[in-house]
Amino acid sequence: METTCVHYSREYVGSPCIVAIDRDRCVVADGTGYLTAVDLKPQVVGPRLFVGVSGGMATNLRSLRSTPARPWMVAVATRGAYAAIGDLEQKLVAKIHPVEGGTVQAVAISPDGCTLAIGTGAYTAAGPPPAAAGGAGKPLIRTALFPPPRGKPR
């Protein structure tokens, strides 16, 4: 096993989560609200995309996911009102708001990179979870992502 250390931030970053893009590249999401690309071989950090809540509030990004169909596109749960999709190659961010409300706790991307699953809810350490906004909503929401990769129909 090979180990490589790259310092990607000089600031306190909270609890980072990481997803591998390939053998030598990864993306980190952390409490600063940024998605940060890291190329391990040359130890290059960047680009960085802000996906957190504007206004400088701390963002507890969680459930960072990627898909082989679109390696530089990642999705992350903000544990707030939306999921964020970051395209680190194009340097684009899209915020996906759940139709039935609730805080976004988890995300997953389909293998073809065309569908995003969002897990919502408000969960406390004590007692049962409260009902979703708008009544007993569906706990999982599917929504379309960016247009499919070139040459791949939806």
Provide the helix percentage: under 10%
Tally of separate domains:
1
Annotated CATH homologous superfamily: YVTN repeat-like/Quinoprotein amine dehydrogenase
Mean pLDDT: 79
Task: Offer a concise description of the structure.
The protein is mainly β and 154 residues long. Helix content is 0%, strand content 41%.
What does it look like?
The protein has 154 residues and is mainly beta. The protein has one domain: Methylamine Dehydrogenase, Chain H (7 Propeller). It is 0% helix and 41% strand. The chain contains no helices and 11 strands. The strands form 3 sheets. The chain has a 4-stranded antiparallel β-sheet with strand order 1-2-3-4, with no helix packed on it. β6 and β7 form a beta hairpin. It is globular and about 45 Å long. The termini are far apart.
